Amino acid sequence: MSSISLIRNPFRVTGRQVLPGFALSLGISLLFVSLVLLLPLSGLLMQSAGMGWSHYWSVISDPRVVTSYRVTLQMALGASLLNGVIGLLLAWVLVRYTFPGKRLIDALVDLPFALPTAVAGITLATLFAEAGWYGQWLAEMGIKVAYTPIGIMVAMLFTSLPFVVRNVQPVMEDLNAGDEEAALSLGASDWTVFYRVIFPTLWPALVMGIMLSFIRSLGEFGAIIFIAGNMPYISEVTSLMIFIRLQEFDYAAASAIASVILLSSLVLLFAVNVWQTRYLKRLKGN
User: Fold this and answer.
1) C-alpha closest to that of 153 among 105, 100, 82
2) Please, which residues have CB within 8 angstroms of residue 131's CB and are 6 or more apart in sequence?
């Protein structure tokens, strides 16, 4: 009898119902996802599918577009790895230490989410220009940031840092201090405690944060165009190439280039989620 009832009603309520019932909640959720996410993405893919393979390939393999892929990937990878280090340190400070202004710094971490990317780009370009606050000191050392590929990395660093911090911070808050104290009492050094006790738990969240930072950087536009210089074959990113094709009213070409970024992001998201799930299962099994 229990197996029959389970088949008839596989969606069992495991907690108190506050929102509407399952059918209504699922219907609203699917409607929102379809209208806001799936429908636009489907339109993009359909626009690209109507081009024909030869035309599609000629658009996405254009030398200028391929160079934009390379610039985007290199700068996004560099920014994501730096964010991994900086974000881990920042999350560690926010969780493990108490100091004046801690809440302010914690709130400022989310500033890139709230600040319009165009405002961020203008601000960064002003700061890192040769006459800017930061740029004038860097110029004396022979380093030019604004209107170079380095400026692209700086913009990506700014816009994607919160993904690392907000992924690592809650995991770090839930760490069991008893495990660290036990390791220290057994004579382990601070580095051994971090590497053997703390880091294995933080690793999945850190990788997820770095990958989200990388994926976010792949599609960044507003913060980059003001500081990159946008020189063909030097400092053009893929999102700018999409914008250029739109300005030329070549919507099919813009959709084709956008589909490359879309598919790359989806594959990366799926891969890192599968890896994280398997890693956590293996970690629990041990």
Assistant:
1) 82
2) none
